[in-house]
Amino acid sequence: MTKRERVTVDVTELPTVVFGHRALLWWGTWGFAVAEGMTLVLSIATYFYLRRNFQAYPPQGYPRPDWIAPTVGMAIFLATCIPAYLVKKSAVRLDRSATTRWLVILSVCALVLCAVRTVDFYALRVLWMTSAYGSIQWVLLGFHGSLLLIEVAEVIGTTALFVNGPVLPRHYPDACDIGNYWYFLVLSWLPIWFIVYIGPRIW
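The structure assignment produced for this chain is given below.
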């Protein structure tokens, strides 16, 4: 009977902090985005299902949603991708000062977007309880708005951590993935904005 040899591996040279697909958090972030994205897709499908029940949309007796304020808001949404990108870039460099600065800016942007979403609801010109048409409009904005509120809490919480410390190397991938999810948040709003506010004017 031979003695079984124990295999050992020297891991001292492996990095203690990783980014992108090598990090477990990266997979968790995009997994969450895929799950929430499917819910948004189902909500959009419901919108078009209801649309087939009417010759005109909005249905007769309902004003079309205002498009000017939501379009300005969409431009603001897209512009916030810049600080999100710079948060990611600074975090990968493990640059606390720059990461903190861009997180603070992104936190301000997040609060501004909450105000923008309030304007978006007013621009619908319909209440959720009036009809199925009003309900699906509010569902689309409300569901995406809930994702926005969750991300606002995450951004502000991470910002507080970087401002007050202590900041450990493992916190930088967290900041980096905030930027990743922010891209999803902004880009997922693009089709909803188009369908709700622009669509009734072109079909």
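Interim note for the steering committee: The longest helix spans residues 132-164. The chain has a mean pLDDT of 90.
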